[in-house]
């Protein structure tokens, strides 16, 4: 059973990590991207699919006056034309328009002044005739008939009769100019006090004035005891100082009579209505807004006219708004995918050229998208109050995805995927900016920290980091939204603290941060096993010399084993100085020559340890070359059966590239006649390749040749090592073996110095130790000399 399972997993791994043409991988990527686009659009659009209409007809379940049988919630934010609100605004606009009045200043001359002059002339005549008593005055001057005898007598007793006319004229003129005296009572007196009055002055240069509504006085109010009479009396006392109260009362009463008799203001209803219609027409159509996730009516509540209006508007706009939302989501996802695609092509064009990497990325992304759907169903449940305390982005495991991708691949790829995911969270959170900032910030921080996961303790640090970042962003969101962190209920500090929003969001941030870090620890072994990816922890496991293949290499090809560790030391130092993945290089070197195990004695480094007569005759160059080539093919097959990662297997063929086995090729040319040499195919003496496709495998190619050549040095010195390293590198350059590796001239200089440093320390000359018997002879001679 175990054999069958291991064989099956080997086949799966081989299928997933198989090198395919770039065009095939790109087609697979297009399919995966399209599926992701449909999946994300579907998940984000599900709330809009479910917005059904409700029956508000008179016999419907949601008609006005009935009890709502279920809670109705809007999933989309939209605005609608609110007729009632518009009419209310128009009424407000109308009520703010002043009432229009016409005031004819010609009344002063034609009415009041004329009658006042006539009456005072009669008074003068009566005084001259000696008939100056109140009864006669009231009889001869009908307009003064309602004045009391005391008032008339006060006028008769006033010695300066010539000033009476001026007093009364000034008083009436002042009332006329300041007030608007109307003939009839006004039914809109209260509204007039709020809106004011617009006076069209007839017969003056000041054509229009705006006055307070309380300055428009019906003439019936003039003689009634009240605020109007008190104000007019005070006005008279200001214009007639130093006179008796009886004379003051007489003058004001007579003046008010003339004003009463000739009210100069007339209400103009046509002008008022026209101005109000104009103001109402200037009011724009008012719109009301129904927020996303707004509960329009709860189950058991009475459906009021306002609620019915919202339900009707939701019925009217729901289908249209939902369709627009779905199209908007789809188009936005397309734009985001294009942006992410261009970014990855620009910065990591060759990163995703295998099936396994694409499956890892998209499968993990689908897990997070599915979690967004499940979380939104709970978070935005009709009766849930989670949105009042938390933000949706606090529940989405964005950190898990970006930590994983950042650790397995690199931060650029992880940030790109996190950028796309942050917008998905933004849409799923009903366009909440804090949720977007939570997702995007966590994505960036976890992507950067993912490359720094070197030990198990780093996962714990990652949990604290993600928690701290989320607390900061959530706090900023609370401050921006004006939410309450802590409210005292009088139950005690600790009780209030545990029930506070501050405590709840802090706990949720801890849960999300550490759950994301823990999930990565759970997923990594699964991904390592299924997709056979060379994570740092996987490489550490493979670097254990107790691995079965390395143990076979030790027992069956011990000198190759020694050679392997020397090449590893050279390559790892160069990779370290070039800031490459030195652990990957070390493990790759450990397994680069495992193909020599089946025929270990054939290879020169092992022959002195395995002197068997059945070894292949090396005097047959063609057969010997085939045996050497077979060690590459055998090594690849053995690595696949052992389920080594593809990145490790690539060291086996690429450390030889397509270089020529010069010794056997030269020998083949040397041993046959010149006429037969044309039948020799040089490709039969070349390794199958490919050439090194990375800096790491190119370093191992140089180090492998250098380590073997260094054994032939007669003298180890900096100069001899410089010459040897230069010779090896030049030979690889001459065969164009480094063309596809990406190594630069500067890199080669660093590689030279790194190799030289390691070789000098490992090939140094040791002092010749003396024989024990020589040491004893010297001790004996010394003891004889010391005796007397």
DSSP strand count? 10
Give the strand content.
under 5%
> Mean pLDDT, as a whole number?
82
**Quick one: biggest sheet?**
4 strands, mixed
Distance between the termini: 86 Å
Helix content range: 55-70%
> C-alpha Rg, in Å?
52 Å
Write the layout of secondary structure elements.
Layout: H1 2-17, H2 22-49, E1 72-73, E2 78-81, H3 83-95, E3 99-104, H4 106-128, H5 134-140, H6 149-157, H7 162-178, E4 180-182, H8 189-195, E5 197-202, E6 208-211, E7 216-218, H9 227-239, H10 245-261, E8 265-267, H11 269-281, E9 287-290, E10 295-297, H12 305-347, H13 355-379, H14 398-408, H15 411-428, H16 433-450, H17 457-481, H18 493-498, H19 501-531, H20 536-542, H21 548-556, H22 558-577, H23 582-590, H24 604-607, H25 621-641, H26 646-649, H27 651-654, H28 662-671, H29 695-710, H30 718-734, H31 745-762, H32 772-785
Parallel strand pairs: 3-5, 4-7
Antiparallel strand pairs: 1-10, 2-9, 3-8, 5-6
Transmembrane segments: 30-49, 323-345, 357-376, 388-408, 413-429, 435-450, 462-480, 502-527
Keywords: Membrane, Transmembrane, Transmembrane helix
Domain HD: 560-709
